[in-house]
């Protein structure tokens, strides 16, 4: 896991489900950031672009992140890597990355 990044203060990462309103493309992402102000529904800070038509989209559903190994929100496993290495982060479609606030370190 990445060390705490103070630039992310006031944000929480979530798992989001997306559907493009223009072309109906669907996808999921673990790189969705919401404001952490205790309000519901949570306010998404950055959307993502659809890979087919480049329409800016926000998720229609959010979940707290869960570990892919133990399936808990507060992880109890010893593994250091919790993401799927076969699925790289698409920074070219991520509006947070495009704003200059990179989600992942290269």
Structure description:
By secondary structure, the protein is mainly beta. The chain has one domain. Helix content is 4%, strand content 25%. The strands form two sheets. Strands 2-1-5 form a three-stranded antiparallel β-sheet, with no helix packed on it. It has a two-stranded antiparallel sheet with strand order 3-4. It is globular, with a radius of gyration of 14 Å. Mean pLDDT is 78; it is low at 1-10.
**What gyration radius follows from the Cα positions, in whole Å?**
14 Å
List how many beta strands DSSP finds.
5
Described by the principal axes of the CA atoms, the overall outline is globular
Mean pLDDT: 78
In spatial order, strands of the major sheet run 2-1-5
Distance between the termini: 14 Å
| Continuous helix count | 1
Q: In percent, how much strand structure appears in the residues?
A: 25-35%
Q: Summarize the helix and strand pattern as letters.
A: EEEEEH
pLDDT < 50 runs, ≥5 residues: 1-10
Concise account of the structure shown:
The protein is 4% helix and 25% strand.
What are the defining features of this structure?
106 residues, mainly beta, three-stranded antiparallel β-sheet, two-stranded antiparallel sheet, 1 helix, 5 strands, globular, zinc, cytoplasm, zinc ion binding, Zar1, oogenesis
